[in-house]
Amino acid sequence: MSETKNGIIGLDVFKPKEEMPQSVQYPRRMSRKVMVGNIPVGGGSPVSVQTMTKTKTADVKATVEQINRCVEAGADIVRVTVNNKDACDAIGEIVKQVNVPIVSDIHFNYTYALRAIEAGVAKVRINPGNIGSVDKIKKVLSAAKERGIPIRIGVNSGSLEKDILDKYGYPTDQALFESAMRHANIAADHNFDDVIISVKSTSVPLMISAYRLLAKETDFPLHLGVTEAGLITKGTIKSAIGIGTLLAEGIGDTIRVSLTDQPENEVEVGKEILKSLGLAQRTVEIIACPTCGRLDVDLFKIVGELEEKTKHIKKPVKVSILGCAVNGPGEAADADIGVAAAKGKGLLFKHGESIGYVNEEDIVERVYQEILAFEPKE
Ligand code: SF4
Fold first, then answer.
1. Alpha carbon nearest to ligand 1 atom 7, residue
2. CB of 294 closer than 6 angstroms to any ligand 1 atom
């Protein structure tokens, strides 16, 4: 490991900040690019947000409805468990009915992976600690290669291979790394390059360290996550720290927040993590003040409605909604579209220039229309 001029963790593959597009605040580790359907992962592509359905996959209607809610919330990729024969029978119909790349999640039975690939999924996640022999993994790789779809090697601290656990005694960063590399090497032996890797743990320090090892040693695109992070408050904090720390070091190409909550909420949290780091290139970022005694409009309502109305928009627009003239114009100058509220109305800004007043009841719709029509300044 060598020192780099950005001084992060000595990865020679980082691009210096000055070479990155202006919207990316952090130097990114340059991983190889793979395609998950129409979504590029790695190679400097925007960091994508994914989630996983929680319905019974055999219930096509409920699963499709949940996927559509995730897409509405801004999911780029959605994973679906394929865990039994009924799920195998359903996955093809689900793929047909939705407009987002579907990843099949496979444990234990490699024939389910083969059936999911046949049914048209955009990626297969296989957990090497669970799937069985090298021969079975190779069969999956051949089928994926024929279809031109990637595989995610999904190593999890709760399902490491026995010999690796025996060697290290308990799940360590090296154990997660070794498991991932073992299966990546099987793929490489099979001339299979379209590999994404995850090394998840419920421990934030452990997953951070394991991903750093992978980032240092390989150029595989990395799928980041803190597994089983918990209910929404605790899970959001754990995920934001684990995923956010790595993203701030330039590590990570796609993310999944694992919450004991609805998948659309996982998407919302994932998008907020990206927005917080200036990495959201496909979402509307809304900045709002906390409000105080100066406030003369219902800002909670305005911001809530605007968040809801814009969450499906996959466009990088920064919007500031502030409660008064104290910070409103200043924040608006730094945003694409801004509002500084006054008594019963708001002064609207575009590219930092004021363009007139809007009545309080019209602020949401006017800002929404401005977002839809917004073009970045040349
Ligand atoms: S922008 Fe105005 S209303 Fe909002 S917190 Fe600041 S001073 Fe209060």
1. 326
2. yes
Q: Which atom of ligand 1 is nearest to the CA of 295?
A: 3
Alpha-carbon distance 17 to 62, whole Å? Answer: 44
To which CATH superfamily is domain 284-373 assigned? Answer: Sulfite Reductase Hemoprotein, domain 1 (3.30.413.10)
Asked whether the beta carbons of 323 and 341 are under 8 A apart, the reply is yes
Instruction: Find where tokens 């998948």 sit.
Output: 263
Cβ-Cβ contacts under 8 Å for 111 (sequence gap 6 or more):
none
- Given a contact cutoff of 8 angstroms between Cβ atoms, the answer to whether 75 and 46 are in contact is no
CB 349 within 8 A of CB 335: yes
Q: How far is the CA of 300 from the centre of ligand 1 (A)?
A: 12
Q: Whose CA is nearest to atom 8 of ligand 1?
A: 292
Query: pLDDT tens for residues 149-206?
Result: 999 999 988 888 889 999 999 899 999 999 999 989 888 888 888 999 999 999 999 9
Q: Which CATH superfamily, name and number, covers 17-276?
A: Dihydropteroate synthase-like (3.20.20.20)
pTM, full prediction:
0.83
Q: Is the CB of 325 under 6 A from ligand 1?
A: no
> Are residues 51 and 266 in contact, defined by beta-carbon separation less than 8 angstroms?
yes
CB 94 within 8 A of CB 286: no
